[in-house]
Design goal:
Helix content: 40-55%
Subcellular location: Bud neck
Strand order of the largest sheet: 2-3-4-1-5-6-7
Number of strands: 10
Number of helices: 9
Organism: Eeniella nana
Order of helices and strands: HEHHEEEHEHEHHEEEEHH
Shape: globular
Strand content: 15-25%
Family: Belongs to the TRAFAC class TrmE-Era-EngA-EngB-Septin-like GTPase superfamily. Septin GTPase family.
Bound molecules: guanosine-5'-diphosphate, magnesium ion
Largest sheet: 7 strands, mixed
Structural class: alpha/beta
GO molecular function: GTP binding
Distance between the termini: 58 Å
GO cellular component, one term: cellular bud neck septin ring
Radius of gyration: 21 Å
Length: 300
């Protein structure tokens, strides 16, 4: 066509730039010790974390809280680089007095926002500011019969205000299918009752999203929290495939089998369908709110 000038290639140009730069995803693990946090993360990214291209460096977050540890992994898929940082927070809810045991986590989130803001406001600011902002907090709920504890409610209230929180039901192999369904219903009721805003948000009027995406988020929300099972062991299924699974006295559990647990849904959610939205929502909503508050306070 004669009036074609080719500006539609801008999408390819943008893609090339973004691919070259790579993406950073910072995931914080929250929950009492022994709930399978480390195991699940290893299960989630197993094929990547222990392959040769995966680096395994540990960096110290700024103003380090004694218990918070960050592990970094670079993953590559079809030329796209994902810098994955896992923020492990052992010690949460392990004390005799758990009052304000979420404070170090809130402080960590805030410190990263603060650091980003300072770099952004620097007269000679970097072209690409290293992003340490927490994009997702995976919150582990214990497999039980009553749902959230008082501590869960308090911690979730605070966390959901500053970071994208994705709740999961930990070690769900310890519940029957019926107990699992009941717990899920209880938790969904509690989220509503206590007004806990879980990610993905009910952003019906968000003009960044297509109507399909809005519907998809609605479907996802009805499935939360994902009931997950983690395992560091490789098992052989009756069909002869080798998969991640748990071998028990009564048989084997294949963590990748969606009829047994929702691990695959969680993985797809984090790495396939919502990876970019987690990053963007952190920047446009959580960081923006922090930034506005800080800059307004400065002016007063
Ligand atoms: P963390 O303290 O939250 O990091 O917990 P770990 O990942 O270290 O796991 C604590 C223990 O629970 C280990 O013995 C794991 O093998 C076990 N475990 C982890 N995930 C699961 C699970 O999904 N189901 C069951 N039954 N045990 C699990
Ligand atoms: Mg651990």
């Amino acid at each position: 066509p004669t009036n074609y000038v080719g500006f539609d290639t801008i999408t390819t140009q943008i893609e090339n730039r973004m691919v070259k730069r790579g993406f950073t995803l910072n995931v914080m693990l929250v929950g009492a010790s022994g709930l399978g946090k480390s195991t699940l993360i290893n299960t989630l990214f197993s094929s990547h974390l222990d392959d040769s291209c995966g680096r395994n460096t540990v960096y110290e977050p700024i103003e380090r809280t004694p218990d918070i540890k960050v592990t970094s992994h670079d993953m590559i898929e079809n030329n796209v680089i994902l810098h994955l940082n896992i923020i492990d927070t052992p010690g949460f809810a392990d004390q005799i007095n758990n009052n304000h045991c979420w404070d170090p986590l809130l402080k960590y989130v805030k410190d990263q926002h603060n650091q980003y803001l300072r770099r952004e406001l620097n007269a000679s600011r970097e072209k690409f500011i290293k992003d340490t902002r927490v994009h997702c907090a995976l919150y582990f709920v214990a497999p039980n019969y009553y749902g959230l504890s008082r501590l869960d409610v308090q911690a979730l209230k605070k966390l959901t205000e500053v970071v994208n929180v994705v709740p999961v039901i930990a070690k769900s192999d310890t519940l029957t299918m019926e107990e699992r369904a009941n717990l899920k219903r209880t938790l969904q009721d509690q989220f509503k009752h206590y007004n806990l805003r879980m990610y993905p948000y009910n952003n019906q009027y968000d003009d960044r999203l297509t109507s399909e995406e809005i519907q998809f988020n609605k479907d996802i929300r009805s499935m939360l929290p994902f009931a997950v099972i983690g395992s560091e062991d490789v098992i052989t299924t009756p069909k002869g495939e080798t998969v991640r699974g748990r071998r028990t006295k009564w048989g084997t559990i294949n963590v990748e089998d969606v009829t047994q647990c929702e691990f695959v849904y969680l993985r797809d959610f984090l790495t396939r369908t919502h990876l970019y939205d987690l990053i963007e929502t952190t920047s446009l909503q959580h960081y923006e709110a922090f930034r506005t508050k800080q800059l307004t306070a400065l002016r007063e």
